[in-house]
């Protein structure tokens, strides 16, 4: 299987003091040897935003180290044409199925892009975000796991 880890799952894994570190780590250990772990290039974007906004030097250094760990430990999935087509359909469907207005859906663009990447990669998206559970209810080609529950 191929697993696309969302930023929150990677953060739990890399932060040994996180409340969810142990759960994610144990799940990771239970995977098969031929399972593949990937993450979105957008994960690096989110970490870069955190680094740019960190006011505490220790936190900033921790985020920089985590970003380096991601680069060294995970296969990064870039944005591509197939994912962009899925994104358009997914965003439209999400808006219609969930009943969210145009302004509110804009806040979910990154999550919808990551879900589109998971579909394009035929990967299971691993996240602790509720939006993905909603998507899995109406999109039968989207696979989602929450390793925290």
What does this structure look like?
29% of the residues are buried. By secondary structure, the chain is α/β, with parallel strands linked by helices. The protein contains 8 helices and 5 strands, in the order βααβααβαααβαβ. The longest helix is centred in the middle third of the chain and has 18 residues, at 81-98. The protein has one domain (2-145): 3-Layer(aba) Sandwich (Rossmann fold).
Taking the sheet with the most strands, its summary is:
5 strands, parallel
Q: What is the strand content?
A: 5-15%
Number of strands: 5
Return the string of H and E elements: EHHEHHEHHHEHE
CATH T-level fold name = Rossmann fold
**Order of strands across the main sheet:** 3-2-1-4-5
The CATH architecture can be named as 3-Layer(aba) Sandwich
Query: Uncertain regions: pLDDT < 50 for 5+ in a row?
Result: none
- Would you identify the CATH H-level superfamily? 5'-nuclease
End-to-end distance: 20 Å
Helix content: 55-70%
Mean pLDDT, rounded to whole units? 96
Number of domains: 1
Distinct helical segment count = 8
Coarse structural class: alpha/beta
The top level CATH class name: Alpha Beta
Shape: globular
Computed CA radius of gyration, to the nearest angstrom: 16 Å
Please summarize what this structure is.
The chain has 149 residues and is of the alpha/beta class. It has helices at 7-14, 21-30, 41-53, 57-73, 81-98, 102-105, 109-120, 130-138, and strands at 2-5, 36-40, 75-77, 124-126, 143-145.
